Amino acid sequence: MGVEIRVEGLTKSFGRQTIWQDVSLTLPAGEISVLLGPSGTGKSVFLKSLVGLLKPDRGHIWIGDRDLPYLPERDLYETRKLFGVLFQDGALFGSMNLYDNIAFPLREHTKKGESEVKRIVMEKMELVGLLGAEHKLPGEISGGMKKRAGLARALVLDPEILLVDEPDSGLDPVRTAYLNQLIVDLNAEIGATFLIVTHDINTARTVPDNIGLLFLRELVMFGPREMLLSSEEPVVRQFLNARRAGPIGMSEEKDMSELEAEAKMGMEVGKLPPIAPQLMPSDGRVRPGQAPPGAWCAAHGVTPPPGSFVDDLGRNWVEEWPRYVASMGHSSAAGHGQGGQQPAGGAR
């Protein structure tokens, strides 16, 4: 099971440049969270701070009862063993085949014998669909396979926290969809706490239990997915709609004259798109981080955008959810997160 991460008042600068300041959020144990934001807002810096590769200027990162930025080096080293990290490009060693790449953390950080190493490596390779490719070099495989190999390596120490940096980077939409499903399946299987940094709107709308958005050196919002996907904040609406109109500019922030010019031309950030059904694990189970669709909106008196929670077969999952849960043998109160709809495309 994953562990909760509490971030309190975190600030990071490089010289005179403030990357972000006073960031506070809680990543719930065992849930999938996504961090969005325009390019250059420090999302990858935030991941590196969480794992202790960068030290913040001030603030706290609580992993259980351990405050990561203030740990002695030996305790920091031990705490890092709770983490698995999937880097943007997989970060594989080009001179090692996939088997040795995935085995590397086990050989580096444990005293397991080679028979035990082989058992674990092959188990993780099977989990990410790479059996049969263990003798291939990174230069001989596709970008999607590199991502999966990097994911397998991130999993070999059975992490309680998994950080994923732009899993869609360099992948086409179809491979991204497969990788998204794999992430959801892995969360259901291992119960780790996931944090994904991404620019991919479809990933953000269908995968996580929680979403955050970084902009202008601040965390604009973080919370259950329905909270952000139904928000009327202009920067949220602009980002979700991928529009030029709005506060985000080419160099991050637009000045007042640009915004006034857009207003005169009648340019708008657009209406919020419908809240999409959330991906389910391939076996159809309800993950602990999931809750009935529409639950957050109903509890907070928020009317979701028209067409929300309807899949591509026209099924409304606010209505279908009780029947689905009953058919799967779950308690109707299963989950405590934000989504839990059958993915668009048909019942399992």
Notes on the protein architecture:
The chain has 12 helices and 12 strands. The chain has 348 residues and is of the alpha/beta class. Among the domains are: 5-94 and 142-215, Rossmann fold, CATH 3.40.50; 238-271, no CATH class. The strands form 3 sheets. It has a 6-stranded mixed beta sheet with strand order 6-7-8-3-9-10. A 4-stranded antiparallel beta sheet has the order 2-1-4-5, with no helix packed on it. Strands 11-12 form a two-stranded antiparallel ribbon. A hairpin with a 2-residue loop joins β11 and β12 (252-253). α3 packs across α4 (114-127), α3 (98-109) runs parallel beside α5 and α4 crosses α5 (143-155). One of its GO terms (molecular function) is ATP binding. InterPro entries: AAA+_ATPase, ABC_transporter-like_ATP-bd, ABC_transporter-like_CS, P-loop_NTPase. It comes from Actinomadura parmotrematis. This is ABC transporter ATP-binding protein.
Summarize the structure.
By secondary structure, the protein is α/β, with parallel strands linked by helices.
